[in-house]
Amino acid sequence: MRILAIDYGDVHTGAAVSDEGGLMAWHSEVITTRKRAEVLRRLGGLIEAYQIDELVLGYPLNMDGTAGVRAEKAEAFSQVLAEAFSLPVHLWDERQTTVEAHDILFASGKNGKKRKKVVDAVAACLILEDYLRAQRG
């Protein structure tokens, strides 16, 4: 079973694919566009190429656990994904993943400009790894 995790944003969307066993993040990339149709096209390419079985969408809750504007956008996008790809879509709490991704990249020596190019892919990996860990119990 392969899973695609998505860190959806207005301009940058991170995507991370699990290995076949659903044990770890295996492939990641950033889709850079403001056009939802292009994001869907690129995600569709990943779904087809990696034979994805389910989707995990980052759910950006507020720090107090409430759903704000960004979470509402994620909820709406989860419906679009479900309709477009006929796959199960799981909303997954992504609080702090972008901050953690920046910290990981900073610790690895990436400067601000280099971090910006890949931070969403790293955040998608963190979402995926957290989801996979929870599924293993």
Defining key terms:
137 residues, alpha/beta, Nucleotidyltransferase, domain 5, five-stranded mixed β-sheet
Description:
The protein is of the alpha/beta class and 137 residues long. It has one domain: YqgF/RNase H-like domain (Nucleotidyltransferase, domain 5, 2-Layer Sandwich), CATH 3.30.420.140. The chain is 50% helix and 23% strand. It is built from four helices and five strands, in the order E-E-E-H-E-H-E-H-H. The chain has helices at residues 36-50, 69-85, 97-107, 112-136, and strands at 3-7, 12-18, 25-32, 54-59, 89-93. It has a five-stranded mixed sheet, with helices on both faces. Strand 1 (3-7) and strand 2 form a beta hairpin. Helix 3 crosses helix 4 (112-136). The radius of gyration is 14 Å and the shape is globular.
H/E element order = EEEHEHEHH
Structural class: alpha/beta
CATH topology: Nucleotidyltransferase, domain 5
| CATH second-level architecture | 2-Layer Sandwich
Task: Give the number of DSSP strands.
Answer: 5
Number of domains: 1
Main pleated-sheet profile: 5 strands, mixed
CATH class: Alpha Beta
| Distance between the first and last residues' Cα | 17 Å
Averaged pLDDT: 92
Shape: globular
**In which range does the helix fraction lie?**
40-55%
Gyration radius from CA atoms, angstroms: 14 Å
Strand content: 15-25%
CATH superfamily: YqgF/RNase H-like domain
Low-confidence stretches: none
Number of helices: 4
Q: How do the strands of the widest beta sheet line up side by side? A: 3-2-1-4-5
